[in-house]
Amino acid sequence: MAELRLIKRGKVWQYIFESAQIKGKRQRISKCGFRTKAEAAEAGAKAMAEYNEAGLRFVPSETSYSDFLDYWMDTYGKMNLKEVTIEDYEKKIRLYIKPALGKYKLKALSSPVLQQFINSMAKQNFSRNTLSVVKGILSKSFKYAVLQEMIRYSPMGNVSLPSPRNEKLKPRTAPHVYIPPDKITAIFERFPEGTSTHIPMMFGYKCGMRLGEAFAVTWEDVLFERNQVRVTKQMQYSQADKVWYFSNPKYESSRTIDVDQEFMELLKREKQKQERARDYYAEHYTILYENDRRQINMASDGKVIHPVAVRENGEFINSNNMQHTSRIIHYELDFPEFDFHSFRHTHATMLAERNVPPKYLQQRLGHKDLQVTMRYYLHLTERMSDEGMAIINSLFQDKNEETK
After folding, report:
1. pLDDT per residue over 300-311, tens digit each?
2. What average pLDDT does the segment 88-101 reach?
3. Is the separation of the CB atoms in 51 and 29 below 8 Å?
4. Domain finish residue from 314, 339, 364
5. What 3-state DSSP class applies to 75?
6. Verdict on whether the full-model pTM lies above 0.70
7. Are 14 and 34 contacting, i.e. CB atoms less than 8 angstroms apart?
8. Domain that holds residue 119
9. By C-alpha distance, which of 290, 52, 396, 13 is closest to 61?
10. Cys-Cys link to 214, which of 134, 203, 268, 281 (CB 3.0-4.6 A)?
């Protein structure tokens, strides 16, 4: 095995060690410029360890789980995952996984330790979705470690999420609320046609769209002749690139949604208004583009796009605008429980009240499975409860009259 040599050259130190021969000739790796012998020794030891592991930044048998997670995200995550997923994973690794597990060696983490970690998060009332994502990160990273022959087997094989029926575990996330008719009226009176978030909120209320989907609709998605709107993408923000971009809808749930005539007339008026503004502003009108990375830009990079949600001069309106709108709804309209997803929840509940077939509602909302949709049918509003009671009273009243 090659030895690390330290040589003083004038006022600085250099490390040197031999690498594999190429065509029978000896090769060496060296670096000069260290102020002290100790600095050169430390840097040389790290470089030599990396070389001996064929370029890895650590020795697999001794690495911490924190360093391995960085390695996994660099070599697997950033090459195979969507940008929005990468950002979500990195956030949960930074906030939850590394503080609890990062200090331990990769090879030392066991099933009981990992199960205790999942259980502790559940006891802190993290949502079921957060628990699932964290468990997925753990499972995928350890599976990758096995494939890379860094550990012999994954300790996640016997780790499970606590039962959702456990009454002691209450998710910390507040449930999405149903918006009663008087609040719907107040919201759209406060943010009428022509305000920046009016149409995106209508997409949520009348189409059941998610936040990112509502702000991503382009005019090519609006099928005027069929009274339909297509959901083909969602708008996301890249923290790394500091840019807005399009991605596929959640769960790849591209779909076509039937739209009521009143909303379609609103969209027609908006399109005509934008066409007049384009002529009025002429060369000063903002033209938007989508490049091959699906990023939205004004630099003539990619194909021209025509978002529905734009300002008078053509600048696109992103979902951050809902932060200001939500604050006004919370405080001025006295509805602190509101968030954009409340429109989607209200839309689904209204359709469930009217006995729309569950499969139709699932397709309309883009739910991953029917079980998620069925929750709306279990969520009784006051109207549904009153109608049910009337049916019960009528049913047994008729039975009593028959026996007289």
Report:
1. 999 999 999 999
2. 94
3. yes
4. 339
5. helix
6. no
7. yes
8. 65-158
9. 52
10. 203
d(CA 264, CA 268): 6
Distance of CA 269 to the CA centre of its chain: 33
- What is the number of helices (H) and of strands (E) in the chain? 16, 11
Nearest to 8 by CA among 42, 32, 43: 32
Nearest to 205 by CA among 226, 222, 191: 191
CB atoms within 10 A of CB 366: 20
Of the chain, the end-to-end C-alpha distance in Å amounts to 103
pLDDT in tens, 9-47: 999 999 998 877 766 777 888 999 999 999 999 988 888
What does the buried/exposed string (b/e) look like for 128-147 if buried means 16 or more CB atoms within 10 Å of the residue's CB? eebbebbbebbbbbbbbbee
Total domain count for the chain?
Answer: 3
Burial class for 2, CB neighbours closer than 10 Å (0-12, 13-18, 19+): middle
Beta bridge partners of 64: 105
Per the model's pLDDT, the better-predicted residue between 55 and 181 turns out to be 181
Looking up residue 222, the CATH number of its domain turns out to be 1.10.443
59, 49 in Cβ contact below 8 A?
yes
Stretch (H or E) spanning 34 = strand 25-34
pLDDT tens digits, one per residue of 256-300: 999 999 999 999 999 999 999 999 999 999 999 999 999 999 999
Rounded distance, CA 121 to CA 134, Å? 10
Using the 3D structure, point to which of 305, 339, 373 is the last residue of a domain: 339
User: Rounded to 5 degrees, what angle do the CA atoms 104, 110, 115 make?
Assistant: 105
The domain that contains 154 carries what CATH number? 1.10.150.130
pLDDT tops 90 at residue 376: no
Both 199 and 334 in one domain: the answer is yes
Contact 123, 131 (CB under 8 A): no
